[in-house]
Design brief:
The chain is mostly helical. The chain contains six helices and five strands; from the N terminus they run ββαααββααβα. A three-stranded antiparallel beta sheet has the order 4-3-5, with no helix packed on it. A two-stranded antiparallel sheet has the order 1-2.
Length: 224
């Protein structure tokens, strides 16, 4: 007759007052007890989705019309930008040669670089100011408005070059009957199209800095 026998691990036994439960500390053949592993249930997915709001998506349809309006308004900045450049860019004192060619006097050829530098600085400043204004439109912040601003700044730069060249030619007209060897004043002009990237670059830089400084996933559109 065997008394005080060992229970096999995992066997069910009846509890007082009814019901059964699995033994918490089963006993093995060596007489030692071992703890059964406990399973940790994961948190409810519904609770996690409630605590973590959905990530906002890019709004296209609602921002498309404001972006088109931004292109039109920003493009008009080329008019005052060209006017300022025509007043600030220095002309060249040149000698009239054969066939209507002109040769700048001594260091006057440096004024060509001066005209390019002045337009680049004007366009860069206009781009930064435009980025600040676009960022203030809180309800439309996002990539669609930024793309519209970049396209509008390209048009504004092109319009500024055309307007500034026409106004400068009116400020420094050629003499009515120039003779060979006469010193004439040549209106400033922009000889490179690389200046077109100055304003879009400044606008993208300013808008990008404001975006990185912002701490909201939707850039604060919901706080308007």
């Amino acid at each position: 007759m065997v008394t005080g026998g060992f229970r096999k691990p995992g066997r069910w036994r009846r509890r007082r007052g009814g019901g059964r439960r699995l033994s918490d500390s089963p006993v093995d053949d060596s007489g030692t007890t071992r703890a059964l592993p406990e399973r940790v249930e994961p948190e409810e997915p519904a609770l996690l989705s409630f605590l973590t709001p959905p990530r906002p998506e890019v709004v296209v349809k609602a921002d498309l019309l404001p972006a088109i309006s931004a292109i039109s308004l920003i493009a008009l900045l080329g008019l005052p930008m060209g006017w300022l450049w025509s007043r600030m860019a220095p002309p060249q004192q040149s000698v009239l040669g054969r066939g209507g060619t002109v040769s700048p006097l001594q260091v006057e050829n440096y004024h060509e670089f001066d005209g390019i530098a002045i337009f680049t600085l004007l366009a860069f400043a206009a781009g930064l100011l435009t980025a600040a204004v676009l960022w203030r439109i809180r309800g439309r912040r996002g990539p669609i408005l930024l793309i519209g601003g970049v396209l509008g700044s390209l048009v504004a730069s092109w319009l500024g070059i055309r307007t500034g060249g026409s106004l400068a030619a009116g400020l420094y007209p050629l003499p009515p009957n120039p003779q060979l060897g006469d010193v004439i004043t040549v209106a400033p002009e922009i000889t490179t199209m690389w200046v077109l990237v100055a304003m879009p670059l400044a606008l993208s830089l300013g808008y990008g800095i404001a975006t990185s400084w912002n701490g909201f996933d939707d850039l604060g559109r919901r706080l308007k």
